[in-house]
Design goal:
single chain, alpha/beta, Rossmann fold, N-(1-d-carboxylethyl)-l-norvaline Dehydrogenase, domain 2, Single alpha-helices involved in coiled-coils or other helix-helix interfaces, 3 domains, two-stranded antiparallel sheet, 56% helix
Amino acid sequence: MRKEFDIGMVGLGVMGRNLVLNMADHGYSIAGYDKDQGQVQALRSEAGSRDIMGAESMEELVGALRTPRAVMILVPAGPPVDSVIADLVPHLEEGDMIIDGGNSHFPDTDLRAEAMEKRGLKYLGVGISGGESGARHGPSMMPGGPQEAYERVRSIFEDTAAHVDGEPCVTYLGPGSAGHYVKMVHNGIEYGFMQLIAETYDLMKRGLGLGDDKLHDVYTAWNEAELESYLVEITSKIFVYEDEETGRRLIDVILDAAKQKGTGKWTSQDAMDLQAPVPTIDVAVTMRNLSAMDPEREEASKVISGPEAQFTGDREEFVERLRRALYAAMIMTYAQGMDQLQVASEAYEYNLDLEAIATIWRGGCIIRAALLEKICSAYGSRPDLPNLLVDPELGALVQARQEDLREVVRAAADMGIPAPGLAVSLAYFDGYRSAWLPANLIQAQRDYFGSHTYERIDQKGQFHTKWQKAEGG
């Protein structure tokens, strides 16, 4: 009698293989397949006595699953996903389910789900965060699609995910591409955090002249206080890691050119389509692009001069200001991301629960931080909160640190050290709290050169002025 496995996994790279092992450790049976049979053999070797089968073909994989079948795909986003689906679908039957666990762009997920529905198949788009370690020991998982399909794998996901205070870091988020959209914005927030942390590193390295050991101490101390988070924690560890080839600290031999896979860019692009301002995320994407221009920057540094990157004040006081400024900027980055989710929820009819999203981000994922407990409380108290900055507690935390952020941005400008993430976070704060902005001039300019009309403060309706006539009269 053939074995009926609980779930199938296509794609046995580091993420897929570790997730299979994680599921098996929680009592589930998994059949795995990869076109690269070396990956299949690696899974068999690591499986030990676990209830895992390495399939030699897609047909064998599907044939080993209990019905309705659930097959998870963990391959790079884009054409590889479509290729796997094309190979998989002929072996499936009506009512079976495909789960895309990669970082697929949400419009692609919607198109695939529509195509699968026509074939009588269910399609889940599931964002997974936590990297290699998360996949093995408990990630944060963000599923979207037909709710009845999610129920088929709910227990597997809940047992496999990270847990915080006894709660699994996974929950059904909404229909269609809701899961992949939430994961995209998660990654946009991640881009913002990484840029902000990098700016604090630059200010302390070039501005204060701090060495790697001191930087390790600073970030370690920060992680033991209000900035406790996964990214600050790993930052502290990076500064003491030695390069095996040179004996130097590895951080000092890594090229200063940051790469990206697209999720941050997608976040910014869709935020612009939705008219949801996410300037810290936008700047983070821009600075990765600028960092990639390393040969051009090298040449420019020889002909363009600026202030000397040297701080002359109290270094310990500045480090403390920097800590407080980073905390304020992190709150604002979360605020921007959550605002985008709120706008997208209405535009795409996801019906997202922001408290639930903050809850499942508390463990397993890359942007997990102690701060998320306060964000959960904010949305728990007021589900329709328009922005985290108007939450009494979070707003007060930012306001209490705004002078620190202003001082840090001033110091960065004086030293000629780029800190655009911190600067634009401050501008976002000042813009959001402004009852009046100079956008009236922009509207006047638009109407002057393009007859785009404008609204008035004293009358309802759309108005247009013949500016050249008024000018000539």
